[in-house]
Amino acid sequence: MTLLGVGLLAFLVWLPQRVDALVMVSETIADLIQGLAQLLEALLGLASVLLIAAVLFAGLLSLLGGLTRIVRSVVRMLNAPPRAVRRKRPARVRRGSSSLRR
User: Fold this and answer.
1) What gap in Å lies between CA 32 and CA 8, rounded to an integer?
2) Distance of alpha carbon 23 from its chain centroid, rounded?
3) Which residue in 12, 33, 9, 32 sits closest to 21, CA to CA?
4) DSSP H or E stretch at residue 12
5) What is the DSSP string of 34-75?
6) Could you give the CA distance from residue 63 to residue 65 in angstroms, rounded to a whole number?
7) What digits encode the pLDDT tens for the residues 8-47?
8) How far apart are CA 49 and CA 80, in angstroms?
């Protein structure tokens, strides 16, 4: 266990000579930011597709509802009995109120 600890510490001392840690950390942060930007762009694309699908669904649902109402009203008009012609009554002549008489 002691030998493993000494070996790991020696590796950590030797590592900066082979790998520039500051460059590696800055590249890692840049890659992380680029990945998050791509993730956000993909989520916005998915949201736009879902919004278009919702508008399409609402349009189809409205079209189906409108066609159903039109068909129902046409069926009612065809099944309704013909209306009888009403005769107009002669207008009744109303006399003014009694307070207006003298």
Assistant:
1) 28
2) 43
3) 12
4) helix 2-18
5) HHHHHHHHHHHHHHHHHHHHHHHHHHHHHHHHHHHHHHHHHH
6) 5
7) 999 888 877 777 777 888 999 999 999 999 999 999 999 9
8) 46
